[in-house]
Amino acid sequence: MNRYVTVACALLLCASVESVWAEALYNEQTYHAYVADRRAYRAGDLLTVMVVENSTAATTADTSASRNNDVGLKLDYDNRVKHGASLQVGNDFDAQGRVQRSGRLLAQITVNVVAVRQNGDLEVNGRQMLDINDEKQEILLQGVVRPADVDKGNTVLSSRLGEASIRYAGQGELADRQKPSWWSRLLTVLGW
C-alpha cells in the first residue's frame, strides 16, 4: 500500500508541473560544450592579443637646383656717346636630408569581441592603461581576427589582426621632456 501511495504522489507531482520543452535546454546561439576549447567566438567574449610590433623607416632626400639669368643693354650713338648696362642674376640651392626611425612595441592586452561578422570573423576592441611613477601609458587596439588564428590558449598575435590599429601613447614628466619647448618650436616656425 505504501508503494501505491508513493507512485500516486509521484504521478500527481508530475501532472502539476508544467511540461519542460527541449528547446529551453538547448539554444544554438548560446550553446558551448563543456569539453570544447574556451576560445572567443561571440560578442562579449574576451581575447588576449600578443602585441609584437617592429617598425623601421628611413628616408633620404637630395635636392639641387641652379638658375642663371643674364640681361644686357648697350647703346652706341655716332661713335661718341656710349651707354651700357648689364644685369646678371644667379641662384643656387643644394639641400640634403635624412630621416631614420625605428620602433618596437611588446605588450599583452586583453580585448573584447564587439561584433561577429557574417563570415565569422571577430571585430575586437580594447584599451589598457598603465600608471607607473606618475607616467600614464595607454595602449589602444582595434582589428579583425579570424577564429582560425586564435590558438588554444585564447590568444592571437597582433600580426594576425586584419584592419589593425594599434596606438601607444604616454603622458607625464618623461613624455613631456621628449617634446621640444614652445619657444624652440616657435623659432623653428620662424626659420631660425
Describe the fold and architecture.
- One of its GO terms (molecular function) is cytoskeletal motor activity.
- The basal body constitutes a major portion of the flagellar organelle and consists of four rings (L,P,S, and M) mounted on a central rod.
- With 192 residues, this protein is an alpha+beta fold.
- The protein has a domain at 46-175.
- The chain contains 3 helices and 6 strands; from the N terminus they run H-E-E-E-E-E-E-H-H.
- The chain has helices spanning 2-16, 173-177, 182-190, and strands at 46-77, 81-116, 122-132, 135-145, 155-157, 162-171.
- Strands 5-1-2-3-4-6 form a 6-stranded mixed sheet.
- A hairpin with a 5-residue loop joins strand 2 (81-116) and strand 3 (122-132).
- The protein is rod-shaped, with a radius of gyration of 38 Å.
- The relative contact order is 0.17.
- The mean pLDDT is 77.
Distance between the termini: 110 Å
The amount of beta strand, in percent, is over 45%
- Mean pLDDT value: 77
Decide which structural class fits the backbone: alpha+beta
The main sheet orders its strands as 5-1-2-3-4-6
Helix content: 10-25%
Summarize the main sheet.
Answer: 6 strands, mixed
Which value, in Å, is the CA radius of gyration?
A: 38 Å
Continuous helix count: 3
Q: What's the total count of β strands?
A: 6
GO molecular function: cytoskeletal motor activity
Signal peptide: 1-22
Function: Assembles around the rod to form the L-ring and probably protects the motor/basal body from shearing forces during rotation.
Subcellular location: Cell outer membrane; Bacterial flagellum basal body
